Amino acid sequence: MRRWWPLVTVCLGTFMLLIDVTIVNVALPQMAGDLRTSFTTLQWVVDGYALSLGVLLLGAGALGDMAGHRRLYAGGLAVFALSSLACGLAPDDGVLIAARVLQGAGAAAMFTTTFALLNGAYQGRDRGVAYGVWGGVSGAAAAIGPVLGGLLTAGLSWRWIFLVNLPLSVAAIVLCRVVLRPDGARRAGRFDLAGTVTFTAAATALTLAVIRANEAGWRAPQTWGLLLVSGLALAGFVAAERRGRHPMVDLALLRNRSFAGILIAALLVNFAAFAVITYTSIWLQSLIGLSPLAAGLTALPTGLIALVVSAAAGARLHGRSPRAVIGGGMLLIGAGGLAGAVLVGPRSSWPALLPGFALVGLGVGLVMPALASSGMAAVPPRRGGMAAGALNTARQLGFAIGVAVLGTVFAGRAADRLGSAGVADPVATAHGLAAGQAGRLLAAAPEPGRPAVSAALHEAAAAGLDASFLIAAGVGLLGAVAVAVLVRPDRPAAADRRPEPVAAG
């Protein structure tokens, strides 16, 4: 049993940081009421964390290779705990968003070290078991987050979804010091500041552009300006990585078709599997009338199935080609999105979500451990932090962009349906609907016309969810195609396990 304590330590941190991606979903309506926030602000409570986590993973990965993975993991836990405290005590939406961004920075330091810590602790079949359990925890955390968020929000307050991290973080720090091996040899070099800044600018501008398009439209000068900034920053990032002496990302890795395919799958999996949960949670609470806990429980099948499948498949599929495993999992996730689009209608309730969520859970259970093990196998051991940073960056950016894109899709489709129903100011009404303000919209309507307004809101929300599920399904299918085309049927790591020279001074 003692040999599994490193796995427990790593999984505890992973569980916390991934739960915090989705734990806020069911608390959004209560946050909106307490803090008097807009729809855009609600998106940033989710995206501020996911974006910070995503854009800082690459730099954190390189930093972990240089400073030591255990040291960076412990430091990330400390930052995560302090920022969670700030989130729980936040007096307004500005402080909450700022604290969420800082929380994402601590999570990035934790997340980027997980693969390297597991590789250092386990070998052979034990490594397969460890990745299977870790993958199950990763997949389950995103789905269990709404359940835990519902429990804490209903029983205490939304602030406790952040304060609960404090005792868990302390326990993880103690375990980190006791059971994880001290850091070994470190990669020489300097922190890639230019690469970190340009990549952060590119990803942030892209996410801002998608969110801005939700309000101003895709043709607006602000939207195109942000897209231009993102493109220029991305070009600067590529130039910095190609010319830098110590780049945080070795762009030569992208020449490996299998690694490129795995990276694309990592980018698309969280978008396809989890981004829509933000809007199903709002729909269930504001229109169907479920409590935060009940709304969170609808996503539980995804987490439980992902945990069981991932843990069972980890050891059995260890060493096999990721093409069938990851590709098949992405197909299942896409099928889950299609099921949601078909089954959710104006008169639907929570049971309509369960078949699609179950299929997503099957897919996530297959994809997550295979992404981790095959991605790490594709690089030399001393580049473990770099590979982990790249894969986890892709996953979290996919989620942040997915929430923003599906918010635009949901509000746009709902506005079209509301306009067809003759609702005054359909765009503003659609944004209020997406922000969980259906009760306020109904209360503002004249009493004789409330049944008609209620019916229009139900139809608009169903149309928005159907469109969101279809987009998620398409993203899942696109990931399956990318894996089928790019990932070789043999193990991708064989050609890439070359010894890496230690950089001088």
CATH class of the largest domain: Mainly Alpha
Helix/strand class: mainly alpha
The first-to-last residue Cα distance is 40 Å
Q: Low-confidence stretches at least 5 residues in length (pLDDT < 50)?
A: 491-505
What is this structure's SSE topology?
Blueprint: H1 5-22, H2 28-35, H3 39-67, H4 69-88, H5 93-111, H6 114-121, H7 124-155, H8 160-163, H9 165-179, H10 193-216, H11 221-243, H12 257-274, H13 277-286, H14 292-297, H15 300-316, H16 322-343, H17 354-377, H18 384-420, H19 426-434, H20 438-444, H21 450-486
Could you explain how this protein is built, in words?
This protein has helices spanning 5-22, 28-35, 39-67, 69-88, 93-111, 114-121, 124-155, 160-163, 165-179, 193-216, 221-243, 257-274, 277-286, 292-297, 300-316, 322-343, 354-377, 384-420, 426-434, 438-444, 450-486. α10 (193-216) runs parallel beside α18. By secondary structure, it is mainly alpha-helical. Helices cover 77% and strands 0% of the residues. The chain has 2 domains: 2-181 and 248-495, Growth Hormone, Chain: A, CATH 1.20.1250; 192-247.
Key terms for this structure?
mainly alpha, Growth Hormone, Chain: A, 21 helices, 77% helix, 0% strand, globular
Short recap of the structure:
This protein is mainly alpha-helical.
